[in-house]
Amino acid sequence: MSASFKDEFEQQGYTVARGLFGTDEVERLREHYMVLRRRGSYDGDAVGVQAGSRDPLRRYPRMAQMHRWDELSLQWLIDDRLERVLTEMLGRAPYAVQTMLYFKPPGSRGQALHQDNFYLKAEPGTCVAAWMALDPVDESNGCLSVVPGSHRWPILCTEKADTSVSFTDVTVPLPDAGDVRDAVPVVMEPGDVLFFHGALVHGSAPNVTSDRFRRALIGHYIEGAAEQVAEYYHPALRMDGSPLELAVAEGGGACGEWVETPDGPVAAMTGMHTVSRKHE
Ligand SMILES: O=C(O)CCC(=O)C(=O)O
Fold it and tell me: Is the pTM of this model over 0.85?
């Protein structure tokens, strides 16, 4: 295995493993989740399915924590290939805490810039995402966009997001008042997996195509050194699928706000988060 996953992850806060899963596997997963979605609603869905809604995200709401009731999702979450890259990047095997499936049909809003460890509160260390494309993803259908190097920033205080382009209502500010359009789009093919650090600022723009879904299967992990994670993510699983007990991380705590200095903007820990929410 190339040492560059670790180098890139440390330097940029993310790395892409191209073609980690094969075309047949991806096709099977894509079809599997479409069948599940058509069948109804499940624990963990963002909202219930509303087949006649004008909002595409209501017709195809995001699924979460499928591995708790779906064997295929569990086997993907703890797959050896994901474990190998994660272990190389982090220096030891992680624990798995979440699966998510975004359908993002044509015309869907995106998701404002955010940092995952704001929600997971993994400590010590951080969380890491494995974001696998199930379709070709690019700027038109709202691929993931990232701010390289932002994994070195603290967890920032959140602000109100523009809900005409984001289905979530909070975002994090960039130092120069930029938004998701200033982040770097990560163009990917089905089966490519983007790994990224829990403090990396990322999000996605709307899917402006008229005919292309942007489906993605996501696993969230916490570093093997972590002793706590927010309640929603319990039980954490070892990479052999066995559960382990960790402490529950509480909400709140200090957060970074951009302040101007003669050397440029610096994220000072002047703010205070007061709410604990599950991952948005
Ligand atoms: O896929 C997206 O558009 C957003 C996903 C995301 O931000 C995440 O998994 O943390």
Answer: yes
